[in-house]
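ugh ok fine here u go
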Amino acid sequence: MSLSEDRTRAYLLGALTGAFAALSVVAEERRRALFGTLSLVCGAMAVVYEERADRMSGYENPDPATSLAATDETESAED
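structure:
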């Protein structure tokens, strides 16, 4: 099973967010702002692509009653 193009972009940007955040922690004083900004931008773009992928797959607003019933059935089966 392969991921959609939007979800792949979201995961890649999420990984870049973590990498830039780590670099901003260990970077020299003058580079911290640059890496911090890149981390924020990549994080925001990751959220946008993840939301787009959710809309494309039809997972926009799940029915709360259905998801709650599925959780209850799973918990009762585990007992």
